[in-house]
Amino acid sequence: MRDEVNARLDQLLPDSDHHPASLHEAMRYSLLGSGKRVRPLLCVLVSEAADGAGRSFALDAGCAVEMVHTASLILDDLPCMDDAGMRRGRPTTHREFGQATSILASVGLLNRAFGVISEQHDIAPAIRSRALEVLSEAVGSNGMIAGQEIDLHERRKYDHATPIESVNWLKTGVLFVASAHIGALAADLRPEIIGSVNDFARHVGLAFQTADDLIDRMGDAQSIGKDVGQDADIPTLASISGTQSARLSCEDNLRQAHNALNESGLHPAGLTALVDSIFGASLGSGA
Amino acid sequence: MRDEVNARLDQLLPDSDHHPASLHEAMRYSLLGSGKRVRPLLCVLVSEAADGAGRSFALDAGCAVEMVHTASLILDDLPCMDDAGMRRGRPTTHREFGQATSILASVGLLNRAFGVISEQHDIAPAIRSRALEVLSEAVGSNGMIAGQEIDLHERRKYDHATPIESVNWLKTGVLFVASAHIGALAADLRPEIIGSVNDFARHVGLAFQTADDLIDRMGDAQSIGKDVGQDADIPTLASISGTQSARLSCEDNLRQAHNALNESGLHPAGLTALVDSIFGASLGSGA
């Protein structure tokens, strides 16, 4: 299914020779790298858990969320933010295309995400509008952008776990929830089921960010494809509460995710397999 | 009506003490400066020209377009792009808030624009979805972002007027047309009338950008509130074809705009007054 996502991401962007080529090459370079595609998979698998209702919309909308995620990575890596040199095993977008083109590529991907959802003429406009509203809320002042601003300017001050979990929630959990939520909208699920799906995704998102912190402390750049250890002086759950505590928090969130999934009444197999594929290795091997 | 737009822009953004305050202060600082508000006025006046059908949606959607425009100005002014120090009579956003917060504020404004349109629950979802699609097309690979990329990397090479007009179209005309188009969607006008409205806006947009080039060559920073003369080594219509030719092109576009407005069959008074207020002074006084 990851191949299906990658093929669709490729189709949803203009070709690299579309004028101006530099902009579209940068958009494609950053989006079509070797991402895990967790967000689109989450969106599609929610639809599949509901017997595949709205699957083709869920695929495109999941790709839209991946565009938003990639847009945020481009910005995170900029010299004025994390100043990262490597991402997904390759030079970061600004190292390859310069800052100006990278910023425009990021904005272009965010904008294209809204375009992809809005142009689904076969889908009821009410579902599209709601999905766009959900996406905008996840990105904005109570979501990803706010999380990045807090992360940049306030995180060094933190000395206990609660605000870190709050930043994790804004930077990662909110977009996980949006992916699952939009998948549930695509399948036209009832509000109480959407609520369970969102709970599931929130716990997966929190577990994911905690696992990411653990990897950042313990991994090496070659195996994970991005700069590591650069957050060494920034407090994380792992550095404040200890690696063992972070691991327990991760496991607890995964347990709550499974409970929420059971409550939803949806077919759990696909989503459970996704969670296992994400967390099996990192929790099992200790990295 | 400009006061009404300013009041609504203020309401549509989170308060400046919404956490993280730095992000929201930067968004408000850049959006609530002393802009001409041409785009929202255009949107509202198209609705008024159709007897005020859909006016409140046109007001909010016009404010959304103004957010997109402001987002583009923040990026244009960055050190890696035009490196401008003054905008709308005040220090540019990055001079006041730093680059990272400015970039996030820009992305926050673009994202909020999509949110403002999607959350209009009183408006038919089909109209909202179509407006969001129009906005995304105007911003993306065939619009504003493409125009900025071309402007940054290719403009210095130009030695004749045609590609300059093409860049002007992407950077300014496309968003003018989107404003008018969304106003026409708000009023639920027929496709052929929307076509005339879009023609009107395209010619106004082309005239506007040409007038802007003329002002940039001839004005002073104090009277227009932003850096001038910094484009002196960049080819413009005025520098290539001469000031007189640029002025004639501007007048020709305004003539075609009036023709298109007449063809639409809408009440022309409000839109004509807007055009006069924009161009009366700059064309009349020779600056």
Compact summary:
The structure is a homodimer of 287-residue chains. Chain A has helices at residues 2-12, 21-31, 38-49, 55-77, 93-97, 99-118, 125-139, 144-154, 161-186, 191-218, 221-224, 237-241, 243-264, 269-285; strands at 86-87, 90-91. Chain A is mostly helical and 287 residues long.
What does this structure look like?
2 copies of one chain form a homodimer. Chain A has 287 residues and is an all-alpha fold. Chain A has one domain: Farnesyl Diphosphate Synthase (Orthogonal Bundle). The first copy, chain A, has helices at 2-12, 21-31, 38-49, 55-77, 93-97, 99-118, 125-139, 144-154, 161-186, 191-218, 221-224, 237-241, 243-264, 269-285; strands at 86-87, 90-91. In chain A, strands 1-2 form a two-stranded antiparallel sheet. Chain A is globular. Chains A and B meet through helix 2, helix 6, helix 7 and helix 8 of A and helix 2, helix 6, helix 7 and helix 8 of B.
Sketch the major β-sheet of chain A.
Answer: 2 strands, antiparallel
Classify the oligomer: homodimer
- What is the CA–CA distance across the termini of chain A? 25 Å
Looking at this structure, what is the CATH superfamily of chain A?
Answer: Farnesyl Diphosphate Synthase
Q: Which regions of chain A have little confidence, pLDDT < 50, spanning 5+ residues?
A: none
N-to-C SSE string of chain A, H for helix and E for strand:
HHHHEEHHHHHHHHHH
Q: Tell me the strand percentage band of chain A.
A: under 5%
Structural class of chain A: mainly alpha
Biggest interface, residues from each chain:
A-B, 51 and 50 residues
What is the CATH topology assignment of chain A?
A: Farnesyl Diphosphate Synthase
CATH architectural arrangement of chain A:
Orthogonal Bundle
Radius of gyration of chain A in whole Å, from Cα? 18 Å
Number of helical elements of chain A: 14
CATH C-level class of chain A is: Mainly Alpha
